[in-house]
Sequence to fold (372 residues):
Amino acid sequence: MIQAAAGRTNPVFNDRKLKLGTFGTNLDRGCAISSIDGVLEINWPNTVTLAKISEEMDFEALVPIGRWHGFGGKTNFNGPGFECFAWAAGMSASTRYSGIFATSHVPTIHPVMAAKQAAAIDHISNGRFALNIVTGWNRPEIEMFGTPMMEHDDRYECAVEWLQVIKQLWTRDDMFDFEGRFFHIKKGYLEPKPIQQPFPPVMNAGGSEKGQHFAAKYCDMVYVVFGSHDFDECKAKVDAYRNLARQEYGRELQVWSYAYVVQGDTEKEAQDYFDYYVNQNGDWEAVTNLVETMIANAKTLPPPVLAEMKKHFIAGWGGYPIVGTPEQIAESLVTLSKIGLNGTLLNFPRYIDDMRRFQRDAYPLVKQAGLR
Ligand SMILES: Cc1cc2nc3c(=O)[nH]c(=O)nc-3n(C[C@H](O)[C@H](O)[C@H](O)COP(=O)(O)O)c2cc1C
Fold:
């Protein structure tokens, strides 16, 4: 099975012990479903500012979220935002080091178009592009395109063909035809090829069994979402993903996750901040819309379980919680490395101010800990 080469141009292949990135800097409010002042207001200068701060810390990955509709509530969380390929092109021209991702919904973009845009962005970024494939779970946004939402496993069958077409366009010198269930390509052709050879890294965050097999078989980077934050359970989840790829497909994967960072000078200050932006000022209507669209059986979950889940989504899109002093933040990142992750995306409630604070106080400790 061909994999992206661990080439020199994309920093996601560097040898840092724990790679870092940002998540969702292309969307209004970033990852915090909260109405407090100071959360990310989406405009081009702000998203570029976050990329610049990332680059000052040599972050390896800037991963946007593919989103076409907001989640209502008083914030219309993640409604306003920049489309991912256009964002990635602009971001590539505004940065020098970080890996630039585009998140692409399979049903919203034809593979010829995705391959062509990706190749252009790989050139603009001088070989720093990566493709995040998502199959789409948010029915209203898929229906906005006038196409019915496919059944869950069919979405991945479609993604297999979509990616097969893209990889052929990226690698084949001859013109080719492709006859599949979902796509029909006549005389497929793409020049210039991407800078990264044989092609840029491909990421997927499949969580279901079908999604995990798709990622293990065809992708280079996978993302795990931790349901529990117990060390052994997290480690078992990471190990299981790696073993699936090794044993069933003879492939090596990078395994990443994502986390939200809430920093305080004292642990109490960090917890008070969490309480303020989540419990007191969370947009509970928006998060209810999000969770009930994403999780089919949400309404049948025990209320305390559902409430806890919503809190994590308000705090940072359900990521791994890192709440505490700079020392505790560095320790948590050491833990994520020990769990076996190659990297993690981070997000912050007041994205710009809090990321600067992380850079000033916590990042030097992350380096001291030998992670970077
Ligand atoms: C780090 C990460 C990034 C994701 N980005 C997006 C995204 O931008 N847009 C989207 O619709 N889904 C996104 N997802 C959802 C996944 O693509 C996937 O649908 C979800 O994890 C459930 O897995 P399943 O599709 O195997 O059921 C993301 C998930 C993770 C963990």
Notes: The chain has a mean pLDDT of 96.
